[in-house]
Design a protein that fits this description.
By secondary structure, this protein is mainly β. It has a 3-stranded parallel beta sheet, with no helix packed on it. Strands 6-7-8 form a 3-stranded parallel beta sheet, with no helix packed on it. The protein is globular, with a radius of gyration of 16 Å. About 35% of the residues are buried.
């Protein structure tokens, strides 16, 4: 819709029938404000990818199943408050979210999050992702990550999950009975 519109800053509208917001604001570098309920949206892939000025996302996304690359390279993103009850994959979703400090979300169906938080500045991760089975490069180069207190009971593969996290000091692990690749 607004792909590569570098000067758009805000979007406050009703979109009650929209089912896909893929690429809606992709590469809108000055975009900062989004206040919209998305009751029927099922796909948000690349929605804010490259929105380097975007800081806060607060919305309810009850039907979203795909949000890959949603906040990819949103370097000023610091606050995400949303429930994603049907999302199964978080591939590159928060990749490069440079200022991410408040993440208040629910991901009960997510099974994979390849590179999901790579290069983000998240300090503490305390969300349970009960169905996560593949954490491949999930926190790759999270230079500020200090603490993990999350339950991943179905995790099978953790290849490079915490690769180059130099400040990681505390892992409050639960049980990983299915882990086969560490």
């Amino acid at each position: 819709m607004f792909l590569n519109c570098p000067n758009i800053r805000t979007f406050n509208a009703e979109i009650p029938s929209v089912t896909s917001t893929d690429n809606m604001f992709n590469n809108c570098g000055n975009f900062t404000d989004f206040t919209v309920e998305m009751p029927k949206v099922t796909s948000t892939n690349y929605m804010f990818s490259g929105c380097s000025s975007f800081t806060t996302f607060i919305s309810d996304c009850p039907e979203v199943t795909n949000c890959n690359y949603m906040f990819n390279n949103c370097s000023k993103l610091n606050d995400v408050q949303c429930n994603f009850p049907k999302v199964t994959s978080l591939r590159y979703t928060f990749y490069g979210a440079g200022e991410l400090s408040n993440l208040s979300c629910s991901f009960p169906e997510v099974t994979t999050f390849d590179f999901s938080f790579a290069y983000s500045k998240i300090k503490e991760f305390t969300l349970d992702i009960p169905k996560l089975s593949d954490g491949y490069y999930g926190f790759y180069y999270c230079s500020n990550l200090e603490k993990i207190a999350s339950d991943f009971p179905l995790l099978q593969s953790a290849n490079y999950m915490f690769y180059s996290c130099p400040k990681l000091k505390e892992v409050q692990q639960y049980s990983y009975p299915n882990l086969t690749t560490a």
